[in-house]
User: What shape does this take?
Amino acid sequence: MDYKKEIKRLKKELSVTIVAHYYQKDEVFEMADITGDSLELARKCQEDENRWIVFCGVGFMGQSVKVIAPEKRVLMPRIACCAMARMIDEDCFDESVAYMMQRGIQKEDILPITYINSDVSVKAKVGEMGGLVCTSSNAYKIIERALESNKKILFVPDRCLGQNFAISMGLRSCIIGEGECNPKENDIICYNGFCSVHQLFMPSDVAFFRQKYPGIKIAVHPECDPSVTALADFVGSTSQLITYVNSLDINQKVAVGTEYNLVHRMRKKNTYVLSSTKPECPTMNETTLEDLYKTLKSIEDNAPINEIEVDAHTREYAKLALDRMLAIK
Ligand code: 13P
Ligand code: SF4
Assistant: This one.
């Protein structure tokens, strides 16, 4: 079957918007009406007029759309779970709060921030405690706002993002479970989660490219380890990385530390993947053209598949956390 042709036909016939994150395979990405980084996708989906959203990405992205725009029917060709989001659940979140309380911080003096790469149930816990969501593109602003509360920040689940922004803002941070992490002596207390894809980038990769191509620029995602971001010329979200690379003179070499599909799609000349191995996100890569076709066809057949549902209680509190983020421009 010619899936591309069928997908285009179904798109024309149905009131559906196809959404894809930059890490999707090229053939899936090319079918999308909306693309962007996590924050842009959430905002654009909220503003979109169509009732049906078919989201090619990872589970937390589809969940976020359902929470902020519950009137929409959100389907995912694959409900693939981001490896980092899988590292924390409600119990782990409660244990992190308890960890801080056991070390002398009152619950009401803790302000939790969850990276958008987390399950909706964790977002609900955060919302219930007065906390908010952040993404890689707005973490600086969100932390800045959180600091105004004079509370201790519990940052989940990405220890790298938490540490990277703490460093760039001149704040003290520690990681629960790594050495002595005393909440009284630190501003940001990080949960010990990470992205298995961005963990692949090493300081030795930066050294390799700098030696091979003197003058090369290094641009990385803030999910990379602080030992890597410290050596980079630019650190930013997926959209910010694209803008940065496009702003460079075409003769300027650049090595980019983020997922392979995105880097491969960037300008072809003088752009390198900052790794000796292929840093693909296995969960993002699960979605195929066939999955996308089947999902659209299920709408046409009045038998939608892989629909995202969020119960009312979870939605109410997760929405608080997401809305607090979206309100910060
Ligand atoms: P962005 O918000 O930068 O698109 O990042 C999403 C993500 O999962 C990166 O691994
Ligand atoms: Fe999750 Fe990492 Fe994949 Fe992003 S690249 S979706 S953080 S596993």
Summary: The mean pLDDT is 97.
